[in-house]
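User: For my dataset I need records formatted as: sequence, then structure tokens, nothing else. Please produce one.
Assistant:
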Amino acid sequence: MGSMLSETVSPHDEPILYLKLAFTATFFAGLFQASLGFLRLGFVIDFLSKATLVGFMAGAAVIVSLQQLKGLLGIVHFTTKMQFIPVISSVFKHRNEWSWQTIVVGFSFLVFLLTSRHISMKRPKLFWVSAAAPLTSVILSTLLVFCLKLKSHKISVIGYLPKGLNPPSANMLSFSGPDLALAIKTGIVTGILSLTEGIAVGRTFAALKNYQVDGNKEMMAIGLMNMAGSCSSCYVTTGSFSRSAVNYNAGAQTAVSNIIMSTAVLVTLLFLMPLFYYTPNVILGAIIITAVIGLIDYQAAYRLWKVDKLDFLACACSFFGVLFISVPLGLGIAVVVSVFKILLHVTRPNTLIMGNIRGTNTYQCLGRYKEASRVPSFLILAIESPIYFANSTYLQERILRWIREEEDWIKANNEGALKCVILDMTAVTAIDTSGIDLVRELRKMLEKRSFQLVLANPVGSVMEKLHQSKTLDSFGLNGIYLTVGEAVADISALWKSQP
């Protein structure tokens, strides 16, 4: 938001106009987000796959942890960028600002927090140990710095914080003037980015706690929050990864924790701000690192590598994109990889050659079941996807290639001539007009080569479309069967009855 607004309006030369545009952009961001939820467009979050979230969690955890090095090392001049390389460069560029006192205090409490977390993980009954550890650390570190204040000038503290709430800003919303287009554009862009990150955070913790996230409700909640925020001196915001991690790590189970947190923040802003004067910044960094470090699930990444290489690629893109580029672009790259995977499965569906398991009426893939064997004079093919315009040409070419390969196998093994091709359509859940044309063309091509085409177990919706298009009329009584076994038995009996 700052970078987009600063291109046109200077926050130093025109601070009032800058504030008006920031609040107005926040309002439009919230309006855009809430509209997406109201229009039931929450399905877009389905493109954030589990693999994408595993990479996002790890990348965000690393980035958030690295950002805390400023407090842990006592660095004063630190980069505002979130990428890995600028953060690491800033850490070593300002080595002269490292404070050994801060490092000792920070890593001592970090060890304390990690130990308490480990104890609670090993013994669930002691969950309160890790839940109480952050607050205990804040109190102890504040008392420590207060008692040693004369000797601890090198330990950075929060310092003076003004009491009170932000003033209302509804009167600063501007819906006219030459800069309205800039406010709308900034609001939509930042709204998309914050919505993407917020929903990613929500789905991350939903996966950890095994519950569902309603995308429409998330969009409306974030949108209404930003619309309300624009009237109370807030700029566009979203679900915080680090603070959500702290909440999760403390053992919060319901939204009541948000009510308690809001009440605590309100009381703190109004009455308790002076108490935090001596709270060291380093302890806040230690608490955040402890919260996010457990979100790096390397075992899940290893499972993705073992099971699905494209899912692992999406995970890696999300991780390295968040780490080296930015959160929105990292998620965007991972979503592109996930969509590419979907397109790959749609345009290049799996087809199998099937055989009969001896002594049964069961037909399974020849490549997966050693017990399965070819049925003489039959080529049984299974299509494992809907048949659409995007894959109909590929399927036609693949089926014809299966037929050529089967004929070559028959010649090499001196088997009986191929007479019938059976398409097992159990997994074909849908078909469009291009798919119907594929079935027609395939039947004609095979008929010219004296092969019979048979369809086995087309599902209801597919059957209806084949019937409405009158494609079934050309198949006759021996062209449609409920199962592959029935087709083989009936057609074999028909051949035997013929002279």
